[in-house]
Design goal:
single chain; alpha/beta; Rossmann fold; 2 domains; binds magnesium ion
Length: 230
């Protein structure tokens, strides 16, 4: 009998809030303005992200109210957010890694399903010492040259690829921190535990009706271990 856990990477496993805020500050720096720029505090910025406020509105609230300014802001953000100089600000949640070790010890088959590109995922898996938890064939990500269509379209497909390429299991679970994770799990008939330690708050996650809400990967895994068929 195999129980499998598909986990998203950014959010459940990695705290990306510093990276996103540094990119935000860099965008504020790079977009020209004649009027005063009003950069948000890190907490204010992150709460807007968690409430799923669009980038254009975040730009607007930061003093960039001309359409060409908000456009430039959004373009810079897209260019920078997954770039190497900013990825170094990511921090893995240490308790999440402990929880994954515990899940692996309990015999749960672990797989990553992430919208990171290969070049963004593999160095992080190695750097955070996760290689023994997620074997090569358990790391589902986007090819480096993939043209993204948007997370809510790409993620269900990627999870489908994971489900069809891995050996069958008795029970599967998914853990993620966004609407794309919830949608992907539902499309693939996998129960989803949504975690609130990532880029969406509980209100936003509940709009998409996850099977369960947990604070973080530790709480999600504890619940899965208790509820796994024995
Ligand atoms: Mg995520």
């Amino acid at each position: 009998m195999t129980i499998r856990l598909y986990t998203d990477f950014d959010g459940p496993l990695v705290d990306v809030s510093d990276r996103y805020y540094r990119v935000y500050l860099e965008c504020c720096e790079r977009v020209p303005a004649d009027t005063p720029k009003l950069p948000l505090s890190q907490n204010a910025f992150w709460e807007l992200k968690r409430a799923q406020v669009p980038e254009r509105e975040i730009a607007w609230r930061s003093g960039f109210q001309q359409p060409e300014q908000t456009e430039a802001f959004v373009r810079w953000r897209q260019t920078l957010v997954h770039s190497a100089p900013f990825l170094v600000y990511d921090r893995p949640w240490s308790a999440a890694i402990d929880a994954l070790e515990q899940a692996a010890a309990a015999g749960i088959d672990l797989a990553i399903v992430t919208m990171r590109r290969r070049r963004e995922l593999l160095p992080a898996v190695a750097g955070y010492g996760l290689g023994h938890l997620f074997r090569d064939d358990r790391r589902f990500c986007l090819p480096d040259d993939y043209q993204k269509m948007g997370d809510t379209l790409d993620k269900p497909q990627l999870l489908r690829r994971a489900v069809t390429s891995l050996p069958p299991c008795t029970q599967a679970w998914m853990v993620g921190d966004t609407e794309a994770d919830i949608l992907a799990a539902k499309r693939n008939n996998i129960p989803i535990v949504a975690v609130t330690c990532g880029i969406r708050n509980e209100t936003q996650l509940n709009l998409h009706h996850p099977d369960r809400i947990a604070r973080d990967l530790t709480e999600a895994i504890a619940w899965i271990l208790v509820n796994a068929p024995s």
